[in-house]
Amino acid sequence: MAEAEQPAVVRAQGIVKRFGPTVALDHARLAVRPGEAHALVGRNGAGKSTLVSVLTGMERPDEGEVTFAGESAPGYGDTAAWQRKVACVYQKSMVVPDLTVAENLYLNRFPGAGRIRWRALREDARALLSEYGVEVDPQARAKDLSVEQRQFVEIARALSFGARLIILDEPTAQLDAGGIDRLFAKLLELRRQGVAFLFISHHLQEVYELCDTVTVFRDARHVLTAPVAGLPKEELVAAMTGDDGGAPEGDSRAVARAPVARKEAGPDGEPVLRTEGLALEGEFDPLDLVVRPGEVLGLAGATASGNTAVGETLVGLRKPAGGRLSVRGRPVRPGSVPHAIDAGIGYVPEDRHDQGLVLGRSVAENATLTVTDQLGPYGTVLPSRTRAFAQRMITSLDIKTSGPSQPVSGLSGGNQQKVVIARALAREPSVLVAIRPTAGVDVKSKDALLGVVRDVAASGSGAVIVSDELDDLRVCDRILAFFHGRVVAEFGSGWSDRQLVAAMEGITEPGTNGTAGDTEDRTEGRQT
Ligand SMILES: Nc1ncnc2c1ncn2[C@@H]1O[C@H](COP(=O)(O)OP(=O)(O)OP(=O)(O)O)[C@@H](O)[C@H]1O
C-alpha cells in the first residue's frame, strides 16, 4: 500500500480482537499519516471503539501489530510510554472532577522529586495552557469546567505528553454549535502544527467538514479508506451499511415524511399530554403544552436553553416550581419518576450510562426493567417470557448482540442506546419523551430509531423529542424552539435548517413565529 514518504504516525495491521464468541475486530487495519485528519466511521458495533482501545494500549489484540512512526508499540501496561504516543479524548471525561485543572494536567507526573511545589505547578500549568491557546484558569476545579473547556484541557494534556496523535471519540456529542466551531478551529490550528487526528463520529457532515481521509469499518472489518473530497455521501453510507439502500445522513426526511397512518387527531381528540403553567425557576418560564394522539412534538434548543429541563420535568426527574401535568386527562404527580411511568410516560434519557442502564445486567433484564409485572404471574418473573420479550425488541430495533442474555456492558454504545429505547417502549407508553435519542447512534439505526418514534405516534400515542439535532427534529410534526428558558418560535412543517438553527441561537427571523406551517392553537401560548 503506497503511503506518503514519512511513516504513518500510527499503523495497525491484521488486528484481531475477540470477546468470547464476538469477533470485534477481524484482521482490521488503519494508518494515519502525520498531520492528517482521518475519520473512522461505521455502524454501531462495527469495531471502532475496540480499535481505539487497541491503539491506546488499553486492550491487547489477539493478533496483529501496531506501530507508531514505524516503531513497535510500547509494552502493554507501560501507560506512560503509550501516553507519549497517543491520547484519546472520550465523550466521558477522563479528568478527575475534584482536582484542579493544574493537578489534572500533571496527574501522576508531578514535576520535580519529593514535595510538590504547588505554586510552580500552577505556573507550569498556566504556561502549558497558554502554549496551546487554552483559556482556562489552572486553579478551577475540573468539575466546574464546561464540556468544551474540559476537552481543551484534555487535548493540551495529551500534547504535553508529546503525543502527535489525538483520537477524538464523538467529541461533538455534548457541544452546542458554538462549541463545535471552536473545537474545529482548534483542531485545524493544531493540524497546521503537524498534529494528526483520528476522528470518530456518526455525524457525517462533520467528517466532510474536518477530515481529509476516511476509513470505514463494517462488521469488524476494514472496508474502505479514501480521500473525503470526491467521495459522495451516498457511497460512504453504502460502504458503512454494505448495501446501497442506506439513506444518507440528513435524509431522515424520508422517515419523517413517510406516510403515517394516524389515529384521529381532530381538535377534540383528547391530548395525550398537557401541561398548564408548568415552570421551573431558573430553567424555564411557565409553559402550556399540548401533545395530541399521533403527534410528535419537538422541543428544540441549544445547551441550557431550557428544553432538556422541560423534558426532565415531564418525566418526573425534576420537580416543577408550579403548574400541572396530565396524561390522557389524568393528573400526574409532578417530580416523581415512578408516577410518570405509571401514568404512561416513557422516557429515553440523554445519558444512558447515568440514567439508562444497569451495565452488568443482560440485554433482556435491562429491556424489561419497567415491565417486570407483566413477565409472570403473582409478581414472579419468568425467564422464558423475559427472553422472548427481549428477543422481540432485539429484532424490531435491530440490536446487535449475541443474544438476550449478553450483558449490556458488552454492547457498543449505539446498541446500548437501543436497549434504553426498548425499555422505554416496553410499557407501551401514552407518550414517549426522548432526550437526544440518537446520540451515538449510526446513520442507518438513527433512521430506524426515529422511525420507531414515529410508529409510537402512529399507534395513537404521542411523542416528545428534546434535541438540538436537526435530524431528530425532522421527524417532528411541530417544533417549539427554546432560548433562555422561553419558547421563541414555533414551526409546523416546511421549516428550513437555517430558520430553526437561527431560532435555537436566539435569532428569531421575521415571520417565523407560528407561521411556518400548521401550528394552529396547539400551544396555548403564554410564552409565544
Ligand atoms: N468488553 C466487551 N465484551 C464483549 N463484547 C464487546 C466488548 N467490547 C466490545 N464488544 C463487542 O464488540 C463489537 C464491536 O464493538 P465496538 O464498541 O468496538 O463498536 P463501535 O463501532 O465502537 O460501535 P458504536 O458506534 O456503537 O460505539 C460489538 O459487537 C460489541 O458488542
What would your notes on this structure say?
The protein has helices at residues 48-55, 79-83, 101-105, 118-131, 147-160, 177-192, 204-210, 233-241, 253-256, 307-314, 337-343, 352-356, 363-367, 383-397, 413-426, 443-458, 470-474, 497-504, and strands at 10-19, 22-32, 37-41, 63-68, 71-72, 86-89, 165-169, 196-200, 213-218, 221-227, 273-280, 284-291, 296-300, 322-327, 330-331, 345-348, 431-435, 462-467, 478-483, 486-491. The protein is of the alpha/beta class and 528 residues long. The strands form 4 sheets. Strands 6-7-8-3-9-10 form a 6-stranded mixed β-sheet, with helices on both faces. Strand 19 and strand 20 form a beta hairpin. 48% of the residues are buried. The protein starts with 9 loop residues before the first strand and ends in a 24-residue tail after the last helix. Helices cover 31% and strands 22% of the residues. The protein is built from 18 helices and 20 strands. It has 4 domains: 1-85 and 193-248, Rossmann fold; 87-162, no CATH class; 269-344 and 430-443 and 457-528, P-loop containing nucleotide triphosphate hydrolases (Rossmann fold, 3-Layer(aba) Sandwich); 357-428, no CATH class. It binds adenosine-5'-triphosphate. Residues 19, 22, 24, 42, 44-50, 400, 410-415, 442 line the site of adenosine-5'-triphosphate.
